[in-house]
Amino acid sequence: MEEEIRILIIYTGGTIGMIQDAKTGTLKPFNFEKINEQIPELSRFNYQLDFHSFDPLIDSSNTNPEYWVRLASLVEKHYESYDGFVILHGSDTMSYTASALSFMLENLNKPVIFTGSQLPLGVLRTDGRENFITAIELAAARENDLPVVPEVCIYFENRLMRANRTSKYNAENFNAFVSPNYPLLAEIGVYVKFERHNILKPNFKKLKVYKNLNSRVGILKLFPGITAELVHAILSVPDQQAVILETFGAGNAMTDEWFLNELKEAVDRGVLLVNVTQCMAGAVEQGKYDTSFLLKEMGVVSGYDSTTESVLAKLMFLLGQNLSLEKLKNKMNSSLRGEMSVE
Ligand code: ASP
């Protein structure tokens, strides 16, 4: 007899797990032990579904690397006992958390599917029911006795995406996430259509979980008229180890002398600068224009077509390993979990 598939559902908080208070009309988290009352269809799965609820539950705006470590530790603790994991998480920072988990869980050979919703489960027109049920199906999907999607993903409104390629781009549409620089892993309509060639292959190595994250990272978003004081302030935060430069277009920045001097001074102090485009899609190509050539010359690392969320998570993950600057740059220039399109 085939063994029953086991899925662990981890509920961290966010809109999905809310109901409307009958008296006040405000949204409040419901007791997740009563999830079957909200979604009676869950009992129709032929899988063993177990639940773990965070206490207290959080709005995802309150997440931070400590929560990421808690989540990664939970996956580690239960890794051998389950075939897949579904993480219910607020959508606001889901791309950050899910990107971080993709780096923290090395040699992941099982599905970790993040989902959430724009409308609470306790609301009639909720998108949460479909997202939740399909996320469970995706986490349980197997072929030739192997999981179909052995990676960290976000499932939202019919689309399965590699987590570290996503950004939340819409605050109210059910279709809240995009994966602008990497194709979907699956599209779900009447049929579940897996795009197998886009999905990472299992490597059958032992899971390794990294729990040391270093938050000495900043983001400097450029804009016309940015002042020298602001640039200086962000680049000279004490103990800052890396700063993401959110640049224009294909990685371009102003060429004012004061600006380049500020960057150069930061590089000389050992701060790693990473160039990520402000555009929603496309890649940084340092050296294509004069306005990025100088960045390349001074040692700014290209983020290629990575999202800011994924570069931030990758930096926290790599800086936590106390690598030499050379190793750190090498890893930033390589795709570790399919997070960017480099050879
Ligand atoms: N503010 C909520 C959160 O991110 C929104 C959501 O769940 O989608 O926790």
pLDDT averaged residue by residue:
95
Text of the CATH class of the largest domain: Alpha Beta
**Ligand set:** aspartic acid
The CATH H-level superfamily of the largest domain is L-asparaginase, N-terminal domain
CATH topological fold name of the largest domain: Rossmann fold
Spatial strand sequence of the major β-sheet = 4-1-5-7-10-11-14-15
Count of runs of 4 or more consecutive helical residues: 9
Element string (H = helix, E = strand):
EEEHEHEHEEHEEEEEEEEEEHEHEHEHH
* Low-pLDDT segments: none
Fold and architecture overview:
This protein is of the alpha/beta class. It folds into two domains: 5-209, Rossmann fold (3-Layer(aba) Sandwich); 217-332, Rossmann fold (3-Layer(aba) Sandwich), CATH 3.40.50.40. The protein contains nine helices and 20 strands. The strands form six sheets. It has an eight-stranded mixed β-sheet with strand order 4-1-5-7-10-11-14-15, sandwiched between helices. A four-stranded parallel β-sheet has the order 17-18-19-20, with helices on both faces. Strand 2 and strand 3 form a beta hairpin. The protein is globular, with a radius of gyration of 21 Å. 41% of the residues are buried. The protein binds aspartic acid. Aspartic acid (ASP) binds at residues 13-15, 59-61, 90-92, 116, 118.
